[in-house]
Amino acid sequence: MKKIIAAIDQGTTSTRCILFDSAGKIVGQDQIEHRQIFPQPGWVEHDPLEILENVQAVVKNALTHSGYGPTDLAAIGITNQRETTVVWDRSTGKPYMNAIVWQDTRTDSICTQLKAAGRQEFFQQTTGLPIATYFSGPKIRWILDNLPRVRQDAEDGDALFGTIDSWLIWNLTGGPRGGIHVTDVTNASRTMLMNLRTLDWDDKSLEILDIPRSLLPKIESSSQIYGYANFLDGIPIASDLGDQQAALFGQTCFSPGEAKNTYGTGCFMLLNTGTEIVPSQSGLLTTLGYKIGSAPAVYCLEGSIAFAGALVQWLRDNLHLIQSSTEIETLARNVENNGGMYIVPAFSGLFAPYWRSDARGVMVGLTQFITDGHIARSVLEATAYQTREVLDAMNTDSDVRLTVLKVDGGMVKNELLMQFQADILNVPVVRPQITETTALGAAYAAGLAIGYWPNLDTLREQWAADRKWLPQMDADTRKRLFNGWKKAVSRTFDWIEA
């Protein structure tokens, strides 16, 4: 039996393990959801110990269900929800508190103070990121300010910080008994603490946020052997990528100008800009795409949308208009259009290209004509409109006009959404045969690290399209609908007062 690669995909709502063969085909998988903890409005937490337990369970279950064993594994790759912040005790391995999730807004006052102090330009130029509650650095600062023991332990070298990748690698390679404390350039680039040019922690950023360097993991490439998984008889852990960068890699967007959009809990569009750092003037993030071994780092522009699939979950769990997420397409097809209504899901403020933490969600254009079908359709269209705004910003920043958009993630099964996305962008939308591109990217990077696949060209040859949607909407309708969306977005501003 030929060796396989296991990809651990630790996401915002669940953890999966997907097994891939040498052709990049899925040969086994398992998935377990974890709790979403909401201590108060705007706060979102996960239990890191629950996530760690689920990670080990899904790997073992995927192997068992597919008839493989640990000895059949060539390597393990890890991809993870980004920015979610864990701080734990080095000697016990216990977190000081729940993980603070990327959607969490409790650091708003810290970010407001940083902006008031005139730090926005510094962070934008140094780290490629605007000052926002989204990123890990302010979350670390909040923990240090609100849990006094953590600051003392950090000063003593007894506390460790990590995004979920670091937390998993440290535990899977031994934890308190010799665990490896590392992260990769993609995850480090989402902290507001890494210098884009040096690919190391930036001293000035640490000073401004008052974060001890001793807390932080070592920054490595995205594809190399970091250590060996104790619970799997020493299989090498050989890749580490933030989830959206992993999807970029899994979509084989290896050349400058190639882009992908992932429709998951949030929605994330990444454009490969090669080895060139492209500063954004349009509200996008300049971030790392990936770094393979000792090869030069590849950069990208990213547009981040907080609520995509999560908006469908809100429709299901809070409004109870559907019983399962897949029902939304059927409900939305009951109507021919949105009926003049828009939903802007600024539940935690607006991300790209606005970065407005004072915004909150709205439903506008309501009349007695509106039905549950119009609401469902507006939920789907909200993701497509947000993607259009990000693409417009990318075109402005990069001066690269996209001719096709590669898509992946759970929502790409929704054919009504994909057609509307092509219509409102006025470019073809292409879905690959393997839509689990986040896990596939982690598997590809791990395989490259151990020679399982020889080079990027081999991976590109494996990519294959499943379906393409071509624009069908006339220009006047496209313009009218998008103008309505822009007006709806303006209604979300200034809801939260400082």
Tally of individual helices: 16
Structural class: alpha+beta
Largest sheet: 7 strands, mixed
In terms of per-residue confidence, which ranges show pLDDT below 50 for 5 or more consecutive residues? Answer: none
In helices, the fraction of residues equals 25-40%
* Oligomeric composition of the shown chains: single chain
Main sheet: which strands, in order across? 17-18-16-15-21-22-23
Rg measurement, Å: 22 Å
Total strand segments: 23
- The separation of the N and C termini measures 61 Å
Mean of residue pLDDT values: 92
SS strand fraction = 15-25%
Approximate shape: globular
Give your account of this protein's structure:
This protein has 498 residues and is of the alpha+beta class. The protein is 35% helix and 23% strand. It has 16 helices and 23 strands. The strands form 7 sheets. A 7-stranded mixed β-sheet has the order 17-18-16-15-21-22-23. The longest helix is centred in the C-terminal third of the chain and has 27 residues, at 372-398. It is globular. The relative contact order is 0.13.
